Amino acid sequence: MVGAAALSFVLAVVVYVLFRTPTWYRPPVVQPDERQSIRNNLVHAEQAFTESLRTGQRFVYHVYQDDVNRWIAMRREIYPLIDEIAPPILTDPVVLFDDEEITIAGRFPLGPTDVVLSVEIKPEYRDDAIHLKVTSVRCGSFPIPRDVGGMGLSKRADLEAEALWPGSPAMSGDFLSGFQVDAEAWWKNGGVDYRVIGLAVTSGRLDLTIEPIGRHADATRRDQLSD
């Protein structure tokens, strides 16, 4: 009886940590009167990046966790085709920036219910590229194997430059062994080539050190044609 009670207790604890919602998991709820201000915030962030590139000087661009999560919450209004391009594995996704770590979490269907699944990613800048590697996966508060089926973390992706959007960098690899994002890309607003030369993740913020390279070839060609 004592052994059965102990086993029942252990099972109850396991079920609890698997199915409980972590206290830090709080997807933002966007109220109707907030929608326009969130759109404006995204536009201002893009304009700030454009203006910094046009100076031709090295700068640090800050990406804030709260802003990113509000943009994610409105992703279908900001870009309605997003789910056709990248079908969501996790619903109600949330991004957390912590010291030298990025966490992506969301609800994942498990049988008749949903659980909160979180993936911790270690970002590094080396060899002129950003490297992203999954260091741990959790179901609720319980660590599970990184290669758990259905997550697709071991699936390799090789994308040429501009495959995802105009100006996007080349990408390759998988998230278990390491996913690489090339440092060089170009920004459509203003038509400027740039290079990421540094990356830092702190509590609530991602900092990217950017070095403008010069006018993009297509933008230069358009300028010549207009002249």
Would you write up a description of this structure?
This protein is an alpha+beta fold. The chain has one domain (2-226). The chain has 6 helices and 12 strands. It has helices spanning 2-19, 35-54, 65-73, 75-78, 82-85, 217-226; strands spanning 59-64, 91-98, 101-110, 113-126, 129-139, 142-144, 157-159, 171-174, 178-182, 184-187, 192-202, 205-215. Strands 2, 3, 4, 5, 6, 7, 8 and 9 form an 8-stranded antiparallel beta sheet that branches. Strands 1-12-11-10 form a 4-stranded antiparallel beta sheet. A hairpin with a 2-residue loop joins β5 (129-139) and β6. The longest helix has 20 residues, at 35-54. The chain is globular, with a radius of gyration of 21 Å. Residues 2-17 and 220-227 have low confidence and may be disordered.
Key structural traits:
12 strands, eight-stranded antiparallel beta sheet, single chain, disordered C terminus, 40% strand, alpha+beta, four-stranded antiparallel beta sheet, 227 residues, disordered N terminus
Q: Can you count the beta strands?
A: 12
The overall pLDDT average reads 82
The span between the termini is 89 Å
Instruction: Please estimate the helix content.
Output: 25-40%
Could you tell me the strand content as a percent range?
35-45%
CA gyration radius, whole angstroms: 21 Å
* Helix-strand makeup class: alpha+beta
Shape: globular
Oligomer: single chain
Element pattern in H and E = HHEHHHEEEEEEEEEEEH
Low-confidence parts lasting 5 or more residues at pLDDT below 50?
Answer: 2-17, 220-227
